[in-house]
């Protein structure tokens, strides 16, 4: 039994244990306006409690290889430091004018010694002043619950999501420039799985 002096601590421990024990899966199917599966959509769950659990990632890179950003889309949490190694034999000049993060890495080869800290949520579009065909994206989130849709099915599976009410947001590079992530309400039950379907309208070719 809990001693009186430890009652609050024990009660809090039971709450945390309960939420962990009841955390379950969330399945989201993403399709376009015609009902066809959409690959590489980023699906994430937002709530006040989810934001409290978000932590910066470690060891993250957005490289340049064969005059492309690799990966083409990088998903990070707020506060993550990202290195931009140039693995090409030509120099790159990486920049972003996006409101979520404006920065510039002037002509360089190799890896700049200072990483770029992404401290604000949003979509960061990357370019290269030397190679106009180079385009990349960094999506900065304040939730630990996110994943990408599968190529064949457009399906996303999120594991160990605590019960509660979330805003389910879905973003894709083919959305119009500046368009926000599509959102809808999703309730995760105390037991069993939660499912949702998303239709992304207005996707560009």
Describe the structure.
By secondary structure, this protein is mainly beta. The protein has two domains: 23-53 and 145-205, Immunoglobulins (Immunoglobulin-like); 55-142, Sandwich (Immunoglobulin-like). Helices cover 11% and strands 46% of the residues. It has two helices and 17 strands. The chain has helices at residues 7-22, 48-53; strands at residues 24-32, 42-46, 60-61, 63-65, 68-70, 73-77, 80-83, 92-98, 101-108, 116-118, 122-128, 135-141, 146-148, 155-161, 164-171, 182-188, 194-200. The protein has a five-stranded mixed β-sheet, with no helix packed on it. A four-stranded antiparallel β-sheet has the order 13-2-15-16. The longest helix has 16 residues, at 7-22.
Poorly predicted runs are 8-20
Structural class: mainly beta
Q: Give the biggest sheet.
A: 5 strands, mixed
Q: How far apart are the termini?
A: 63 Å
In one word, what is the shape?
globular
CATH architecture level-2 label of the largest domain: Sandwich
What's the CATH topology label of the largest domain? Immunoglobulin-like
Number of folding domains? Answer: 2
The number of strands is 17
